[in-house]
Amino acid sequence: MVDNPVVRNPGEGARVKLDGLVRMFGHTRALDGFSISIEPGEFVALLGPSGCGKTTALRVLAGFESLDSGSVVVDGKDLSQVRAQKRDMGMVFQSYSLFPNMNALNNVAYGLRMRRQRPGPRKAKASQLLELVGLADQASKYPHQMSGGQQQRVALARALAVEPRVLLLDEPLSALDAKVRAELRDEIRALQTRLAITTVFVTHDQEEALSMADRVCVMSAGRNVQTATPVTLYERPATAFVAEFVGVSSRLPVERIGDEIVVFGERCAVRGAEQAISSGTLDALLRPEDVAIEVDPSAKEFVTHRNFLGASTRLIVQVGEISIRVDVRSDLAAELEPGTRVRPKVVSRDVLVAPRMNVSVADVSANGHPAHV
Ligand code: ATP
Question: Which atom of ligand 1 is nearest to the CA of 52?
Answer without folding.
Answer: 6
